[in-house]
Amino acid sequence: MLGLLKKILDKYRENFDEGGKLERLYPIYEATDTILFSTNEVTENGPHIRDSIDTKRVMILVVMSLLPLYVFGAMNIGFQNSIAIGLERSNWENFWFGFSKILPIIIATFTAGAFWELLFAVVRKHPVSEGFLVTCALIPLTMPAGIPLWQIVVATTFGIVIGKEIFGGVGMNIFNPALMARVFIFFTYPTKISGDKVWVLGPDGYSGATALSIPAAELNQDALTLLNNFDQFDYSWWNMFWGWIPGSIGETNKFLIIIGALFLAYIKIINWRVIFGSILGLVGTALLTNLVAPFSSNSMFTIPPHFHLVMGSFLFGTAFMATEPVTGCHTNQGRWIYGILFGSLTVIIRAINPAYPEGVMLSILFVNAFAALIDWFVIQANIKRRQARYAQ
Amino acid sequence: MADYNLVKGHDIKIAGVPKNTVVEGETPEFVALKPSEFRGIKPKLMVQEGDQVKIGTPLFHDKTNPEITWPSPGSGKIMEIKYGPRRVIEKIVVKLSDEESSEYFSSYNPQEINNLSRKKIVSALLKGSIFPFIRQRPYNKVPDPDVIPRDIFISGWNSGPLAVNLDLALRRRLPQFQAGVDILNKLTDGEVHLSYNENTVSDTLLNVRGVRAHTFNGPHPAGNVGIQIHHVSPINLNDLVWVVNAQDVVRIGNFFLMGKLDTTLFVTVGGPSVLNPIHIKSRLGSKIEYLLKDNLSENENRIISGDVLTGTKSSLEDFIEFYHSTISVIPNESSREFLGMLRPGSSSSRYSLTNAFIGSRQKNYSFNTLKNGSERYILPINAWENVLPMDIIPNALYRAIYAKDIEEMEQLGIIECDEEDFALCSFACPSKIDVGGMIRQGLDLMEEEG
Fold first, then answer.
1. CA-CA distance, B290 to B283, in Å (whole number)?
2. Are B369 and A48 inside 8 Å of each other by CB?
3. Strand partners, B286
4. Residue of A1, A38, A44 to mutate, testing the B interface (most B Cβ within 10 Å of its Cβ)
5. What is the residue range of A199's domain?
6. Label partner for A332 (CA 20 to 30 A): which of A105, A142, B100, B114?
7. How far away is chain B from the Cα of A114, in angstroms, using its nearest Cα?
8. B408-418: per-residue pLDDT in tens?
9. So what's the ipTM on this one?
10. Domain boundary residue among A203, A229, A244?
């Protein structure tokens, strides 16, 4: 069976090789071939032996770390729906209900993503990059369950084409493509991805405020009291940690996110400096807002740091978006600054910007834009050190 | 406590580590010199096929610097002068005669060596064709004899995979090593730096006088002379330092004490495909066949002159290169794994600096020639940074070279770099990028323009 598959691939190889009649489609052939069978390229000169890791394996591992979030996301969609319509359901039924809602989203994302990735690979003659798997795996997780499929397709297109391919593909993009997809919907179809009505699949007009929008709507109140008195959902710290709250598909369960982040940091794919920097920035800035809270009418200022951590999508953004190696800083010192900047900006946008109670997405895109500048300063410091030595 | 404790880097656990015993190598039938391996020279032949030569007879010189000549590693008849594409002289093969003889030059006792002038030493080195054993940094090539180097560096520690244990090579050779150091001291106005690792150091190195000794600790490439220069006294703009392999310091000392070229070379043969990995007391330019006789496993192998990270693809018919002292053999592999990217994969079947494969790491791993992936764009997950113990930002440097931005390359410190120090970066890179090769390109560009 395997031998047959290999034979078929080898048989058609000549059509795709240089001079073959399907030469233009070589990247598609190459992708199919190397996904099915690991490559047998051998080293030439230079190091004759190589590490076993490659980009395919890296990307697959990231996708694997996201899978538990899909499972929980499906369960939570069903759970929130059962509350909204007042129905008792088992976890299993909840899962299947949610699964039937997110499966079309996943299919739509991957179809659109693969289409553009392959098209650009063929036109621009670059190899099909495995990075699109991660992008497409992330996009559904950042969406509310009720997002219309055509919007998903348009957003994925925007994310892949404008967020990545126009820069030359993976490794050259400035902004995180998955976030570009989300921000596209956020600004073009805001009613589908913000406000109180989109986070739970309920009857028409069913409304449920998210944890962040509760204090954002009130003046001169203590945020914790507001959350405690809110009886539609349980917005206690632990419940927000375990994720049985309304929100985007993948962002709610903080426990699984932390497990995923620890896994990715352990296998050295994401950098712990970004994570710690982000938490440091968030906690520091939150403490600062707590200090000025008595002098302000803004209730958001009263949210304590440990609540900031579990509210909204901060941990999801930190673990899977801000740490993305290509669009983040490339130097270790830069990664600290980048993380701290991201954490502080999140609180600043949450607390001070009246339009958006959640600031994670925008602050990641913002620090993405600054990553190269931060790196530039680190590199200049390295150059200055060297020049100081020359001058001696 | 070592003077320099380096953290970054990695000791690759490759199977077939040479045993710490030396066997006397079989005398090869052929030895050769390969002009094509020397960077930046235009070789001009001084002999023809059929000529009789002695050990140390100059075989060719550099057109731009005619006084620099390269010595014959054996005595006998020139069997073949092999040309490569575009009439590049690839190798000059000498068939050894039964009775070997050497070219003789003036010899000195240790006291006399101390009274020699720099000029006299340089002319002796050039006349005896010993000069090419010295290389310069930056650019890692045979230096211009008229330029006085800032310092001279000797690495007394091979940290590379399967490398020669210098303790074995230098044992009981203190007088020669001392003479070599004394000679080198005359060549520079600066100092002769000797770096070693406390755990593997030879008594010869501990007892030698007239050097500035440094101890280095840490994983490979801490034993690379380029890394040591970077930490001890980095190469600044317009600086020029010389480096000599420890075994060649002995050779230089011996040349002045005895007046002839000592062709002894301690070589390791190792790697997963070598049945009995061991140290061999062999000679310069030996045919590889004689080093590996009856010592190879059956499968299809790649034979490498040098170590697995920086060596050159070679064959049994080929010869060990001038500056190399390791022959590594790894299996040639071309199998393909079904759905390899999805297999969980354990670290007993795969070797990675990331923890991406489950399980305890096997003690010594049988590497092969598979690249384990295709080339992709840079994925900056610190794979390069974690194995480069230098204050250099490899990612930024790579980009500057890619963009051919000479000024930025220089600012980012390319003259402190050499290909061999970046070989581990290429090894670890998930995108399978040849970082060392890029550094080489950058250095070539610098040399052309600068």
1. 11
2. yes
3. B31
4. A38
5. 17-39+54-203
6. A142
7. 18
8. 999 999 999 99
9. 0.89
10. A203
- Residues B51-105: tens digit of each pLDDT: 999 999 999 999 999 999 999 999 999 999 999 888 889 999 999 999 889 999 9
- pLDDT at position B144 is 92
Do the chains contact at A170 and B334, CB–CB below 8 Å?
A: no
> Which residues from chain B sit within 8 angstroms of residue A30, using beta carbons?
374
- Neighbouring-strand partners of residue B338: A37
Q: Over the stretch A16-36, which tens digit does the pLDDT of each residue have?
A: 777 767 777 777 777 777 777
Q: Which of A152, A175, A203 is the last residue of a domain?
A: A203
Q: Which residues contact B40 (CB under 8 A, 6 or more apart)?
A: B139, B141, B142, B447
Same domain, A324 and A215: yes
Contacts of B79 (CB under 8 A, 6+ apart): B30, B49, B93, B94, B95
Residues of B in contact with A171 (CB under 8 A): 376-379, 431
A386 interface with B at CB cutoff 8 Å = yes
- Answer whether A170 sits within 8 Å of B377, measured CB to CB: yes
Strands B278-283 vs B264-270: parallel, antiparallel or unpaired: antiparallel
Q: Angle at Cα B195 formed by Cα B194 and Cα B201, nearest 5°?
A: 105
- B369-387 per-position pLDDT tens digit: 888 888 888 889 999 999 9
A299 and A184 both lie in a single domain: no
| Shared domain check, A128 and A268 | no
From chain B, the residues in CB contact with A386 under 8 A are 411-413
Report whether B164 contacts B326 (CB < 8 A): yes
pLDDT band for position B342 (cuts 50, 70, 90): low
CB contact (8 A) between residue B379 and residue A325: yes
Please report which confidence band the pLDDT of residue B280 belongs to, taking 50, 70 and 90 as the band edges. very high
Same domain for A218 and A163 = no
Q: Which domains does chain B have, with CATH numbers?
A: 1-24+101-332 (no CATH), 30-96 (2.40.50), 385-449 (no CATH)
- Regarding whether A239 and A195 lie in a shared domain, the answer is no
**pTM, to two decimals:** 0.90
Which residues pair with residue B31 across a beta bridge? B94, B286
Nearest to A41 among B345, B371, B424 (CB): B371
Q: Distance from first CA to last CA of chain A, Å, rounded?
A: 69
- Report yes or no on A173 lying in a domain: yes
A vs B, Cβ pairs < 8 A, gives 208
Mean pLDDT of A128-135: 85
B89-96 β-sheet, strand order: B30-33, B89-96, B76-83, B52-53
- Summarize the confidence of residues A358-377 as an average pLDDT: 92
**Total domains present in chain A:** 2
pLDDT (average), residues A69-87? 90
pLDDT higher than 70, residue B166: yes
User: pLDDT at residue A1 above 70?
Assistant: no
A47 near B CB under 8 A: yes
pLDDT above 60 (res B1): no
- The DSSP 8-state label assigned to residue B266 in this structure reads E
CB atoms B373 and A39 under 8 Å: yes
